[in-house]
Write a structure and sequence with these properties.
The complex is a heterodimer of chains A (about 300) and B (about 280). Chain A is mostly helical and about 300 residues long. Chain A has eleven helices and no strands. Chain A is flat. Bound molecules: adenosine-5'-diphosphate and magnesium ion.
Chain lengths: ~300, ~280
Amino acid sequence: MTTIQESLGSSPEVNLERKKSSSKNLFGILMTGLTAVFTLFILVPLFALVFDVARQGLPRLGLQSFTQLPPPPGLTEGCFGNAIVGTLIVLAVAAAFAVPIGVLAAIYLNEFGKGSKIAYWVRFGANVLTGVPAIIAGLFAYTVVVLAMGRFSAFSGGVALAVVMLPIVMRTTEEGLLIVPQEVRQGSLAVGATKFQTISRIVVPAALPTIATAVTLGLARAAGEAAPLLFTALNNNFWSTDLFRPIATLPVLIYFFSIIPYRAQQEIAWAAALVLLGLVLIVSVIARVVTAKRRF
Amino acid sequence: MRLGLVWVMVFSISLSLHTQTRAILQAENVSVQYGSVPAIQDINLDIPKNRVTAFIGPSGSGKSTLLRCFNRMNDTIPGARLLGRLTFEGVDLYGRNVDPVQVRRRIGMVFQRPNPLPKSVYENIAFGARINGYPGDMDELVERILRRAALWDEVKDKLWQSGLSLSGGQQQRLCIARILAIEPKVILLDEPCSALDPVSTLRIEDLLIELKQQYTIVIVTHNMQQAMRVSDWTAFFNAEVDAHDHRKNRLVEFAPTKVLFSTPKERATQDYISGRFG
Ligand SMILES: Nc1ncnc2c1ncn2[C@@H]1O[C@H](COP(=O)(O)OP(=O)(O)O)[C@@H](O)[C@H]1O
Ligand SMILES: [Mg+2]
């Protein structure tokens, strides 16, 4: 039987040097190496994708991308200015629905309905909604808005994207409210604040960075969806800011232009993909910067 | 004639003595359960006005629970149920038309862990005053309150920094200060120094002794020296196990602090203050 003391060696001096050959150290080095390799595996596709899109999209990108209309088949002059405007408009409509509903629902779930049956089912519904394919959200908006209004429109596209955004906004906001410590609420109540004052002046402001993240995450997700827009916002070859007419959007433009056999259109699709990627990236970076301000 | 004057004097003196030690908070047969688990049972206690009352006793003996009854913070704990009667200046705290928010505006609370609001130092003070409709100059109030809490010199250059950027002891004094800003009648403190170093602890004790001229203070503490230093009255709570193996939390003894620590009536008190248990 050896004691721990003996296994440390018989030398009378204290020896604290790292033992290079010990099996524990070798295992550690091996694992560190493995995790590094797998980290690279994640980064490789990301960089490959960004690089490829940039390589194919950059030649066509320029100031005119933001100002010109797409060319009809056969012609080569033009770009996708209207689709950028259209994407922004549809996203604005989506946010106008999804942000208030999602944020208020999260406040209800976390501040009022904790542990209640309603809260359970709302949360369950949101989870299901997260898993629903985006095209189903489009179908929903098609039946509820397009059929009712009798036409394709930017508005109906916004509704479809709102359905996609809603669960993301709600769940992320809820997480933000959850990390506001209970003691903070008690502190506010203990100086005589009502529940409403506590929520509106203390809890929600404290959760604001996370709510901003919730909104940007939702926007980033919705910005890239083409499927729900195909039979709601449809497409438009001209400038339009009318909420109740079909409108061009980047994902739908990419979809249409990448499947037609004209070189110019395909180049435009790549450039549009690059702009879309940049848009999502900018939005995500903004979210990061905003949340980086820690409050607790 | 002269005799009458003497009587009036005697009467008014006894009246003033009486009002000085009048109870501001009273608990009659108060029991609290969390779910179906009893936390405190049949507590009867009068908290004297403009005095410091200390609650001492082992962990889990129900000190915090009773404290939270006085400003209705137990209302915020799901499943908490209260039996018995609690009054503030003779008014039933749990009366049908009583608004817990109004109760908390008069009976402020400081918690075990410093919990400044996630706002600036200034806003931590101003928030309570503002929601209570303070009509005066807010800058003046913030400075006055911070001076009163002996915090002004340390934070006057940090008014716009987050309250969370202060040290633990400063945070706790900020929490006391924000209570002062709503001008309550009573301040409840639940082990306010348990997370603090000895120097910060002494600072807070000095502050409490200074504040008792004007406020009624109830403080829960694990530290018996602290109870002796700051309090006028002490209540000893104990967690006891009865013959049927049921835990029962009881108010064992309530007496002027000097009396309780020098000549405790009960054996349990004697054991606790001398560090013996069981
Ligand atoms: N929020 C709670 N939910 C359930 N039980 C609780 C809660 N708070 C306290 N208790 C129970 O009530 C009893 C008294 O607790 P507490 O008042 O915190 O004692 P003390 O402050 O003297 O340590 C304990 O048995 C404790 O477990
Ligand atoms: Mg306690």
